[in-house]
Fold this protein.
Amino acid sequence: MISVIVLGTGNVGTHLISTFLKTNKVTLLQVYSRKKQSLIPFEKNVDTTDCIQHLKEADVYIIAIADDAIANFSSQLKFKDKLVVHTSGSASINALKNNGHKGVFYPLQTFSKKQPVDFKNIPICLETERKGDMQLLKKLANSISERIYTIDSHQRKRLHVAAVFSNNFVNFMYKLANDICDEYHIPFEILQPLILETAQKISTHHPVAIQTGPARRNDTKTINAHLQLLSGQPKEIYQLITQSILKTYGKKL
């Protein structure tokens, strides 16, 4: 059975800890955090420590901390024959500065501590420097997920950009839509079936094929009417995206 230590109790680390504790295919040996208080929720279920020198020996050490802290933190890990991985989507495998084996264990999902997730359906992107380490990491990933991908650092950085477009930017659009609804006392929930339907279509159709709306059909009358209702940043964003859609489908405003 693979033994694992999770280093970090942020959003990603918290969900990994919870998931590893639920599977009988992995032994979660220990959880590390430099903040003692963040370890309290896990103390009843797993050994914890806030001291790097007290880390146990495990097959895999998963660093789930902020990207800009990976290099300095990993350099303090002195295990020469153990696999150390990080969970970042944007950091290269070379961000790891430990002397031993290196890899990446990147679960592509948005995580919030209080929002449950089903890891079985979360894609996990893997990278290692050695073939043997990849076999180990695949076995670990398969213990919690059914969607495993081998993605190198060059690909992963681009994938992370794509994830920002498809998740973070889209959520900001929801925020703008919610602002409009709030201003005119319209329940935002009216838009939820539309949002869900659009997201569902992506699983079976190419995005280009399902684009709809006034910009897609070059409805300048509706576009101009919308622009008259908007001002400031929302208006600028509306104009920019409208122009992009028109350009994509070979039309001009």
